[in-house]
Amino acid sequence: MIRHGDADPLISHRQAERLKEAWTRVDTATPLDFAILPGAGHGGSAFDAAVLQSKLAEFLAGHLGMK
User: Fold this and answer.
1) What pLDDT was estimated at residue 50?
2) Residue 4 burial by Cβ neighbours in a 10 Å radius (0-12, 13-18, 19+)
3) Exposed (0-12), middle (13-18) or buried (19+): which is 5, by Cβ within 10 Å?
4) Model confidence at 53: pLDDT above 80
């Protein structure tokens, strides 16, 4: 699961895109849950949104065998 804010003043969201591209080249079988969060910075309330927290919980449960 990769999330990155497109308004991050410290690290360009392009770095997250590069990570996704590299991961996909190396391991085509692993599904990636990737999103750029519009208007989000380096952390903050956009990452605390209920819908994002729900997706994170679902992702972790699925990948840690907790379903």
Assistant:
1) 92
2) buried
3) buried
4) yes
